[in-house]
TrEMBL record:
IFT80 second beta-propeller domain mapped to chain residues: 304-590
SMART domains: WD40 (SM00320)
Pfam annotation, one family: TPR_IFT80_172
UniProt keyword terms in alphabetical order: Cell projection, Cilium, WD repeat
Lineage: superkingdom: Eukaryota
Residue ranges occupied by any IFT80/172/WDR35 TPR domain in the UniProt entry: 618-764
PANTHER family linked: INTRAFLAGELLAR TRANSPORT PROTEIN 80 HOMOLOG, OUTER SEGMENT 5
Protein name: Intraflagellar transport 80 homolog (Chlamydomonas)
Localization: Cell projection, Cilium
GO biological process entries: cilium assembly
Organism: Neolamprologus brichardi
Principal cellular location given in the protein's record: other
Length: 779
């Protein structure tokens, strides 16, 4: 990825440009306004390369900052989107129309107003001044509050993603101040020189800073340093996040740099511009404009982006041209587009390209399927095997690869503009979205209807969730979602849980990124700087003690600092290292084959594969898969192969059960599903067995409750309770047990006889059921 820059031969501004900004209220994303000390506001049309004067400002107005009113809030378009705020050296800010007419001028600070920024929904404006004050104003220009006052000028200010916090500079320090008076302020020394510029992205929640120490830095919202650049030759005078938060740009003297969100540099340009005083991205994130100290406005377009899938590599060579290369035979195809390419995605044998006006879907490179887009600013494309998801400023849309709109999920407080690949996930039947208003909540939708799954209740985790990912294979009833929370713990849970509380199981810790395999439900992730592959993560629901035996761990010595998993296709995991380089790691093909055999119930083939591979982790996977599918013979052999003799004995115990219902309930117990096992016993009329389960697990009160409710085996519960207390030389203190023990005599001989009678009834019932089944089959 690099920047393709362009400059006019002659500058249109006299003196130097102080601030320019790309209008977020465009319809074509090809119009730019700039302002300068020559008192001119110019409009730049990138399609016609024409520049026109909008207005000549009064002589006393020397602009310092410039920011357009937000175009949309969530999915609603703003009615007031045709104005911008212009700050100036005379201590005022000016609300100015698109035609250049000053609607209102407000006395804001003593000395110059150095920065002015609308919040994300346009309900408030913040200004920072040379007098060290930070003030918040209504959108009509009425003063709401003075947020801070300090002894040094505030050179730059930025809103937090939810517009509830402010980031500003204070000499060499950065300060995050919440709008709530009682909330804690975060303050830290960020640079060795005065900080000149900051930016805070609403999608990834990361902070940029640059200053006179000639460095730029990336921080999280708690003030933890994520990246520090090497020292440049000159101070960093400007920086800006792209709208989607994937890249950012940095400006310095005769320098323009494009960087990844983790901090490493994609490209470095050395234009003859003087200092780049401000930078602004177009709304679609494909174009960048910079205001330069020599009076020029520099334009840059992001090109040479790469997408890979199996044997295909696709490169964006120009704004409207892609090159497709088949690495197997070196065949090259060129794809031409009518409009500028904004986003693209390559997966599952399909290339999806969003331009400013249309969407192209390629299955072969000759005949794309084309349909028009309602909104031109596509910010995210996600693909599954059967369909894909487009996210733009107006909403989320699921399309088939034939171009048919399938669904459009909606929910209260929806803000599509801040969604990214970590907060949204797609499978063939499910869409998962992390709720921005409460990051512990994951909203689940049916991909085919757009309606909330099940009873409409979302999935709620105990901690804030950072990343989510749905598995891609298997039936919809067995769909799983993996999530990483703010403690960097990795959890797995089911998506469809039929009214029950979802069981959220921890399967890893210190996990920094993850990805599901495209062809099997195998999960990989970077765990404590090692590559870990969970061959069969769902085993945690069947036999969680097997989980550690189903892992493949690759030492992290070959990876540099902070590698990130990009994808897991076939047997190849693609990782991006901390310095931006790509590393490929291969995984054995046997686990994916084992998943295929399990889904198609080819247990003989699965056994032969494990015998051939002679890998303990494969045997452990097979044991879990067989138990999940109630294939006891295969499970017994697999457990025996890994030396799990107690489980082999339990499988023989399952076979000895007199009825199918009893066997099923004990299998649920094996998986730790106690409530489900109890319900299975009760549904089959096996009251004693349901009571005995709770006795064995020392759930004494539940055992007594069942006995009293069904008026049977109260003496059995009391007898076992008494035996338990005698073992520990304790006396009964539970009032409920004392109440029932008064009128009940404990006689172990009678209890044993009663139990034998219950078991013989169950065997007799099972035999009658078997006879009836055989007679019915003969008929």
């Amino acid at each position: 990825m690099r920047l393709k820059t362009s400059l006019l031969k002659e500058s249109k501004h006299i003196l130097f440009v102080v601030m320019e900004h790309i209008c977020v209220g465009w319809t074509t994303a090809d119009e730019l306004y700039s302002s300068s000390e020559d008192h001119q506001i110019l409009k730049w049309n990138l399609l016609t390369s024409e520049t026109s004067l909008i207005v000549k400002l009064p002589e006393e107005i020397y602009p310092t900052d410039f920011h357009w009113f937000p175009k949309t809030v969530g999915v609603k378009k703003q009615a007031q989107a045709e104005i911008f705020v212009l700050t100036s050296t005379d201590g005022k800010f000016h609300l100015t129309s698109k035609m250049g007419r000053i609607e209102k001028s407000v006395e804001a600070h003593k000395g110059a107003v150095l920065a002015g920024r609308w919040n994300y929904d346009g309900t408030a404006l913040i200004t920072a001044g040379e007098d060290g004050q930070i003030k918040i104003w209504s959108k009509s220009g009425m003063l709401r509050s003075t947020l801070a006052s300090q002894g040094s000028p505030v050179y730059s200010v930025a809103w937090g993603p939810d517009s509830d916090r402010i980031l500003y500079t204070s000499g060499r320090q950065l300060i995050i101040k919440p709008l709530q008076p009682s909330a804690k302020i975060i303050q830290w020394k960020a640079h060795d020189g005065v900080i000149l510029k900051v930016d805070w992205n609403s999608v990834n929640d990361l902070i940029l800073s640059g200053g006179e120490d000639c460095k730029y830095k990336v921080w999280d919202s708690f003030g933890h340093l994520l990246h520090c650049s090497l020292s440049h030759d000159y101070p960093v005078t400007s920086l800006s996040w792209a709208p989607d938060g994937e890249v950012f740009a940095v400006g310095s003297f005769n320098t323009l740099r494009l960087c990844d969100k983790t901090g490493w540099s994609y490209a470095l340009e050395k234009p003859n511009t003087g200092s780049v005083f401000s930078l602004a991205w177009s709304a679609d994130g494909t174009q960048l404009a910079g205001a330069c100290g020599n009076g020029h406005v520099i334009f840059a377009h992001v090109v040479e982006q790469h997408w890979e899938w199996k044997n295909f590599v696709i490169t964006l060579t120009k704004r409207r041209t892609m090159q497709v290369r088949n690495v197997l035979n070196d065949a090259v195809d060129l794809l031409e587009f009518r409009d500028r390419v904004i986003k693209a995605s390559l997966a599952y044998g399909h290339l999806v390209v969003a331009t400013s006006l249309q969407c192209y879907v390629y299955k072969n490179w000759n005949t794309p399927l084309i349909f028009d887009l309602k909104e031109g600013t596509v910010s995210l494309i996600l693909q599954a095997e059967k369909h894909f998801l487009l996210v733009d400023g107006a909403g989320l849309y699921t399309f088939s690869y034939e171009g048919r709109l399938i669904s459009s999920p909606k929910f209260p407080g929806m803000r599509p503009d801040i969604l990214n690949a970590q907060s949204v996930s797609l499978s063939n039947d499910t869409i998962a979205i992390r709720d921005k208003s409460d990051e512990k909540v994951i909203l689940l939708f049916d991909a085919l209807t757009g309606k909330a799954l099940g009873d409409g209740k979302p999935l709620t985790h105990k901690q804030e969730v950072l990343e989510i990912a749905l598995d891609q294979c298997g039936p919809s009833t067995d769909r799983k979602i993996a999530l990483i929370d703010k403690n960097r713990d990795l959890y797995l849970t089911t998506v469809r849980h039929l009214g029950r509380e979802p069981k959220i199981c921890k399967i890893g810790s210190m996990v920094h990124s993850m990805a599901w395999n495209d062809a099997a439900n195998i999960l990989c992730g970077i765990q404590d700087n090692q590559l870990t592959v969970w061959y069969y993560p769902s085993v945690v629901f069947t036999d969680k003690e097997l989980l550690l035996k189903t892992l493949y761990i690759k030492d992290g010595s070959e990876f540099r600092r902070a590698p990130q998993v990009l994808n897991y296709i076939g047997t190849k995991v693609t990782l991006r290292q901390g310095d931006g380089s790509l590393v490929y790691s291969s995984v054995l093909p046997f686990p994916a084959l084992l998943h295929e055999y399990s889904i198609s119930a080819r247990w003989e083939d699965a056994l032969r594969l494990c015998c051939y591979a002679k890998d303990q982790s494969l045997w452990a996977c097979l044991a879990g898969m067989a138990m999940a599918n109630r294939e006891l013979t295969t499970a017994e052999m697999a457990y025996a192969a890994i030396g799990e003799l107690p489980r082999v004995q339990y499988i023989n115990f399952l076979r000895e059960q007199p009825s199918k219902e009893s066997s099923l309930a004990h299998m649920l117990l094996f998986s730790g599903q106690v409530q489900e096992a109890e319900a299975a016993f009760l549904q089959a009329g096996l009251i004693y067995q349901a009571i005995q389960v709770n006795i064995d697990l020392y759930n004494w009160e539940r055992a007594l409750e069942l006995a009293v409710k069904h008026k049977t085996h109260v003496d059995t519960v009391l007898a076992y309770r008494e035996k338990f207390l005698q073992k520990f030389s304790r006396k009964e203190t539970n009032k409920r047990f004392l109440q029932y023990s008064e009128g009940v005599e404990v006689d172990w001989e009678k209890i044993q006889a009663k139990i034998e009678m219950e078991l013989s009834k169950e065997r007799e019932r099972a035999a009658n059921t078997s006879v009836r089944s055989s007679v019915a089959s003969r008929r």
